[in-house]
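Record passed on underneath.
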Amino acid sequence: QICLSLVKLLFYLAHSPLGSIVLLDFQPRQFVMVDGNLKVTDMDDASTEELSCKEDNDCTLDFPTKSFPLKCSVIGKCEGINEKKNLFNAYRYFFTYLLPHSAPPALRPLLSDILNATGDLRYGINETLRAFEKVLHLYKSGLYLQKRPLLLKDYISLKGFRTVEGEDYKCWPSYSHLGCLLSIHSPEEAAAICNSQLQCQSFIITQHRTWTGRPLASFQSSWTDLIPDTNAVVYIKRSASSGERL
């Protein structure tokens, strides 16, 4: 969410009515999340000026660990230097820390491609935004899910119930520090996640959703202490419930 919102912001800056705008003091502290959207808190160090040049050798974009040769345009400006400077700063301050984590395994190669392409400045802001929107579409639609055996049949579902909230086993990346709370596309995906975790014996799906509209599922190491909740469904492994009375 943070990276996509940043890319949308940089897309606007690259195509603003004033021309391509560069953020000269590009630091994480210069941004804030407002209603799920990343915004710049200080525009004092923004500029529309692009580096003047006479030849391509005048257009080297330097960073502490990398340098990029750019072209000198016919009007004597380094082509796309503002856009590329913003994009590489987004890569080194945000993408490298956020993109490798928390995505479903099937989507990680696509995020790695974005990471590598922006780190080498092979992508401009237009290509980067299209790549992010493709990943978002796959994520929201569930098209990233690989065909696998149907596992939900191994669970008993009880509508209108959930387990008592409390601290349980942890997992990564969890929306809660007290237990294992993950976003899912469907109960079938939740069953696959539960089967992959040795501690998991049940999971609960409520009406709580993430910014992408995906429901949240809480994975539990037990299924006892059920309480009524009209907005929830608890799924219990048949193997865990065998010999027990529901």
